[in-house]
């Protein structure tokens, strides 16, 4: 059986819009991954709303698309609070994921930058991810942010 298709119209409170054709069998996580590709907004930072209802990551889009004649209109909220909380997780894999998610905002936000710097919690594998993110942020940079990144990289370099 082939699944039905739905046009998903995403918008942010800032007015950014995106339209994606999706299968009604796709999950909310699938939609977040497609949004990540289009907007470079990590899924961990996305909260999708249908009106006032928060969409469940594991739910299929068919749960929210009730009128086949209309597109599914959703609002995308950028949420950093859950990402910041995950930076302090005892699980190294969760901290790595959060560091990578925070990288999209670290050039504009000092708190995000400091969170990446401090999140490794003594775990060398997490430190490698944090340093990799900081190196990517430093490429093509200049000014005070670049100097901070270079300082952190030099301070934590493994010889």
Shape: elongated
Number of helices, counting only DSSP H or I runs of 4 residues or more: 6
Outline the biggest β-sheet.
5 strands, mixed
Distance between the termini: 57 Å
Give me the secondary-structure category: alpha+beta
Which strand order does the major sheet show? 2-1-5-3-4
Mean model confidence by pLDDT: 81
Strand content: 15-25%
The total strand number stands at 5
Rg is 18 Å
SSE pattern, N- to C-terminal: EEHEEEHHHHH
Can you put this structure into words, describing what you see?
This protein is an alpha+beta fold and 159 residues long. It is built from six helices and five strands, in the order E-E-H-E-E-E-H-H-H-H-H. It has helices at residues 28-39, 81-86, 92-102, 110-118, 124-138, 143-156; strands at residues 5-12, 17-23, 46-50, 53-54, 72-78. It has a five-stranded mixed sheet with strand order 2-1-5-3-4, with helices on one face. A hairpin with a 4-residue loop joins strand 1 (5-12) and strand 2 (17-23). Helix 3 packs parallel to helix 5 and helix 5 runs antiparallel to helix 6. The model has no long low-confidence stretch (mean pLDDT 81).
């Amino acid at each position: 059986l082939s699944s039905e298709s739905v046009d998903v119209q995403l918008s942010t409170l800032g007015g950014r819009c995106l339209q994606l054709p999706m299968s009604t069998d796709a999950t909310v996580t699938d939609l977040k991954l497609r949004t990540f590709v289009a907007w470079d907004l990590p899924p961990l930072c996305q909260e999708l709303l249908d009106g006032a209802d928060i969409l469940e990551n594991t739910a299929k889009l068919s749960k929210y698309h009730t009128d086949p004649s209309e597109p599914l209109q959703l609002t995308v909220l950028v949420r950093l609070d859950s990402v910041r909380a995950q930076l302090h997780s005892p699980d190294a894999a969760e901290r790595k994921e959060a560091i990578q998610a925070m990288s999209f905002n670290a050039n504009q936000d000092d708190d995000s930058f400091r969170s990446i710097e401090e999140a490794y919690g003594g775990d060398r594998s997490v430190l490698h991810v944090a340093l990799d993110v900081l190196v990517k942020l430093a490429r093509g940079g200049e000014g005070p942010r670049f100097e901070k990144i270079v300082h952190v990289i030099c301070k934590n370099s493994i010889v």
